[in-house]
Amino acid sequence: MKSMILGVTGSIAAYKAADLAHRFYKQGYEVEVILTNGATKFITPLTFRSLTQNRVYTDVFQDDFPHEIKHISLATKADVVLIAPATANIIGKIASGIADDMLSTTVMAVKNKPVLIAPAMNTNMWENSIVQDNIAKLKKYGYQFIEPKESLLACGTLGKGALADLDDICNAVNAAVNP
Questions:
Q1: Which of 4, 40, 122, 150 has the least CB density, counted as fewest CB within 10 Å?
Q2: What pTM was computed for the model?
């Protein structure tokens, strides 16, 4: 059985991550979900626990794993990491080596495994030079990006920044796991 970490960040597209989690679960993946604090404002841990039959992680300092360092054990166990949706914030954190929450800390502990990032944000944020520099930096380090699509965004803007189609995300993850 393949194991994956699904990182979900604080974007309106977080609700689509529930469908992703369930799709991967039905494909036979063991799905471990990590929600950022922002993600919990859009969708609850209970949703993911119900869809994956697994514990959901929200805090690096959760005290219910006394015999392991959970961000290390998750990073070691996973065959692939998917961050979907990925905000400009998490992309910037990873690009800067900042590890200050469960998701960024776990990603920093991943070694020699594919990490795929599916951004979702406002067009102006997507096109921001700093965000694009962070993406280029991460690509240089081997992180894979699943480009957002052009769509009518939650803010009412028509432009690039919507989460990629879920089929495209699933295909990219499966290709990364089974090259």
A1: 150
A2: 0.95
| Cβ atoms < 10 Å from Cβ of 151 | 15
Exactly one of 155, 157, 158, 171 is catalytic; name it: 155
pLDDT of residue 61: 78
Mean pLDDT by 10 residues, the chain (179 residues): 96 96 97 97 97 93 71 93 98 97 97 97 94 98 95 77 95 94
Q: Which residues pair with 56 in a beta bridge?
A: 33
| Amino acid symbol at 44 | T
Helix (H) or strand (E) holding 15: helix 14-26
* Token reading at 105: 């800390």
What pLDDT sits at residue 66? 63
Active site residue 155: yes
Closest CA to 120 of 92, 143, 88: 88
What is the domain count for the chain?
A: 1
Residue among 50, 3, 56 at smallest CA distance from 28: 3
72 is in which domain, residue-wise? 3-177
Task: Give the SS3 label for residue 167.
Answer: helix
Residue type at 66? P
CATH number for the domain spanning 51: value is: 3.40.50.1950
Do residues 95 and 128 touch, judged by C-beta distance below 8 A?
no
pLDDT of residue 70: 84
